[in-house]
Amino acid sequence: MRYPHVNPEEADDTSKHDITLNEAMRILDIDKLDPLQVEKRFKYLFELNSKSSGGSFYLQSKIFRAKQRLDSEIQKQIA
After folding, report:
1. Nearest-5° angle of CA 14, CA 17, CA 21?
2. CA-CA distance, 57 to 9, in Å (whole number)?
3. Mind listing the pLDDT tens digit of every residue in the chain (79 residues)?
4. Cα distance between residue 20 and residue 57, in whole Å
5. Domains in the chain, please, with CATH?
């Protein structure tokens, strides 16, 4: 298994997004799945790491993937 530390419920989403839920939450520095908090942290960190601010495209990519993973989890909870 590629991610031995991932619980089975997260396995499907992890393979889709290549990032665990826990890792995504750590990247955006959030402690709960609140859509407003996710969006706020995403916008702040994405802009902070923009090339025009001297940031890193690599970090922006990680931030973007983290938001995708969290958005996917939020959608699952709503459905």
Report:
1. 50
2. 31
3. 444 555 555 555 555 558 999 999 999 999 999 999 999 999 999 999 999 989 999 999 999 999 999 999 999 998 8
4. 20
5. 8-78 (1.10.287.110)
Tell me whether residue 32 is exposed, middle or buried, using C-beta atoms within 10 angstroms of its C-beta: 0 to 12, 13 to 18, 19 or more. Answer: exposed
Angle in degrees, 0-180, between the axes of helices 8-17 and 57-78, rounded to the nearest 10: 130
Predicted TM-score (pTM) above 0.85: no
Of 79, 3, 72, 63, nearest in space to 33 by CA: 72
User: Who's near 48: CB < 8 A, 6+ residues apart?
Assistant: 55
The two tokens of residue 22 are: 């826990």
